[in-house]
From TrEMBL:
<keyword id="KW-0808">Transferase</keyword>
<keyword id="KW-0028">Amino-acid biosynthesis</keyword>
<keyword id="KW-0547">Nucleotide-binding</keyword>
<dbReference type="InterPro" id="IPR001048">
    <property type="entry name" value="Asp/Glu/Uridylate_kinase"/>
</dbReference>
<dbReference type="Pfam" id="PF00696">
    <property type="entry name" value="AA_kinase"/>
</dbReference>
<comment type="pathway">
    <text>Amino-acid biosynthesis; L-arginine biosynthesis; N(2)-acetyl-L-ornithine from L-glutamate: step 2/4.</text>
</comment>
<protein>
    <recommendedName>
        <fullName>Acetylglutamate kinase</fullName>
        <ecNumber>2.7.2.8</ecNumber>
    </recommendedName>
</protein>
<dbReference type="InterPro" id="IPR036393">
    <property type="entry name" value="AceGlu_kinase-like_sf"/>
</dbReference>
<keyword id="KW-0963">Cytoplasm</keyword>
<feature type="binding site">
    <location>
        <begin position="40"/>
        <end position="41"/>
    </location>
    <ligand>
        <name>substrate</name>
    </ligand>
</feature>
<feature type="site" description="Transition state stabilizer">
    <location>
        <position position="8"/>
    </location>
</feature>
<dbReference type="InterPro" id="IPR037528">
    <property type="entry name" value="ArgB"/>
</dbReference>
<feature type="domain" description="Aspartate/glutamate/uridylate kinase">
    <location>
        <begin position="5"/>
        <end position="241"/>
    </location>
</feature>
<keyword id="KW-0055">Arginine biosynthesis</keyword>
<keyword id="KW-0067">ATP-binding</keyword>
<feature type="binding site">
    <location>
        <position position="62"/>
    </location>
    <ligand>
        <name>substrate</name>
    </ligand>
</feature>
<dbReference type="GO" id="GO:0003991">
    <property type="term" value="F:acetylglutamate kinase activity"/>
</dbReference>
Amino acid sequence: MSTLYVVKIGGNIIDDEKKLSSFLKDFAAVKGQKVLIHGGGKLATKLAEQMNVPQQMIDGRRITDAETLKIVTMVYAGFINKNVVAQLQANNCNAMGLTGADGNVILAHKRNHPTIDYGFAGDVDAINTSLLKSILDQQIAVVMAPITHDQKGQLLNTNADTIAQEVATSLSALYDVQLIYSFEKSGVLLDANDDSTVIKAINPVYYQQLKSEQKIFAGMIPKLDNAFAALTRGVKKVIIGKAEQLTDLITGNAGTSIVHE
Ligand SMILES: Nc1ncnc2c1ncn2[C@@H]1O[C@H](COP(=O)(O)OP(=O)(O)O)[C@@H](O)[C@H]1O
Ligand SMILES: CC(=O)N[C@@H](CCC(=O)OP(=O)(O)O)C(=O)O
């Protein structure tokens, strides 16, 4: 099987023009088939607040009311997705930007929770792997926005770390998938405020320990839950690390490796 790189890029990089442009140059240079999943939560929050639409996150998930859904669709599926695609084209990397509704690529359902109403937040049901493969086989990189749909006309907002995991997992039947979560820090850190404290490898037992000591918290929890899920569900390699070090993350020379044992 050939290798497929599934790379997630976090919201703090998306929001930094210089870092984003440098990251996209590196991503464009990655040889072989590749998928880029972007977030953009930071920009969506900023815009919503400017529009006086209050925002609330629970366990790394945005409570998505009707107004917020309009904003996140405009921000993720519109501005960010198309800007990323255009910049990849400028770096001689042919790319196609999609939401889950395009080509029925990601089917989801409205999140059903016994006590919390997440609004129009979606949980993934199915990925159209054959369509993704047919695009990738034409040497076109796929750029996914974190917007899905329920096939009844309803768009849904889905956490981008989860989309990366679901896309990586489903394509692991067809490719040797390497999943890379890239963001603004050097990896999973022993001290979240000290970039020199990168943990080289983390297994489920160590993860539980660091979580109970509150050394791992907030957005890093869903990221690691997704990272372990990907590994369990067939993804060959999962790395978390700094967006500026994409090449080193791919070669295993930087970041945190997620391991079974
Ligand atoms: N041990 C840790 N190491 C690194 N980051 C951590 C850790 N614990 C919590 N975090 C927080 O997790 C955040 C990353 O999660 P999130 O903001 O969801 O990522 P993304 O930018 O990919 O959307 C970091 O900005 C950091 O504040
Ligand atoms: C339902 C839900 O939480 N969706 C996320 C999608 C964007 C995202 O995940 O962006 P980052 O990767 O930049 O955090 C949100 O709206 O924040």
